């Protein structure tokens, strides 16, 4: 029987990308950690449902990754264009609306649309407090995996 850890090490090495100047400088540690997490979870599934004897990756230590997000956010101009369009769609309709409940629902939808335009996950959006939303400032968001991202909030 082939040793699973050796197979994983070979697979991980095949997916690893190194800097051209240094074979020891790994360029994609987050990808390697994701692969390890998926395989480790698969073995946990086998253990739970099929009584597989052990998880060969139970002692795998995740590689060090950057503590900040590399996900691109919209810049100020792009965000303002989206919000201007949303304003035409939602807020201008609200002025003509007589129903307060309809007004609040549309306003809530407008705000959610604006936050989604910032490329945030649902979990990140629901953790935002009203006090965090200040004009011409930055919104600090804790992302999946514990990294942080500053997002500009235009007026």
Summary, kept brief:
With 155 residues, this protein is of the alpha+beta class. The protein contains 6 helices and 4 strands.
Describe this structure in words.
There is one protein chain. The protein is an alpha+beta fold. It folds into 2 domains: 4-50, no CATH class; 76-153, no CATH class. 48% of the residues lie in helices and 12% in strands. The protein is built from 6 helices and 4 strands, in the order H-E-E-H-H-H-H-H-E-E. It has helices spanning 4-15, 29-50, 76-89, 91-95, 100-116, 122-126; strands at 18-19, 22-26, 137-142, 148-153. It has a two-stranded antiparallel sheet with strand order 1-2. The radius of gyration is 23 Å and the shape is elongated. The model has no long low-confidence stretch (mean pLDDT 77).
> Main β-sheet: number of strands, strand sense, barrel status?
2 strands, antiparallel
Radius of gyration, whole Å: 23 Å
Shape, principal axes of CA atoms:
elongated
Q: How many alpha or pi helices? A: 6
**Average pLDDT level:** 77
**How large is the share of residues in beta strands?**
5-15%
Q: Please tally the β strands and state the result.
A: 4
By secondary-structure content and strand pairing, the structural class works out as alpha+beta
Q: Work out the count of structural domains.
A: 2
Unreliable runs, pLDDT <50, ≥5 residues?
Answer: none
Distance between the amino and carboxyl termini = 63 Å
- Report the order of strands and helices: HEEHHHHHEE
Estimated helix fraction: 40-55%
Strand order of the largest sheet: 1-2
Q: What labels describe this entry?
A:
2 domains, 155 residues, two-stranded antiparallel sheet, 6 helices, 12% strand, alpha+beta, elongated, 4 strands
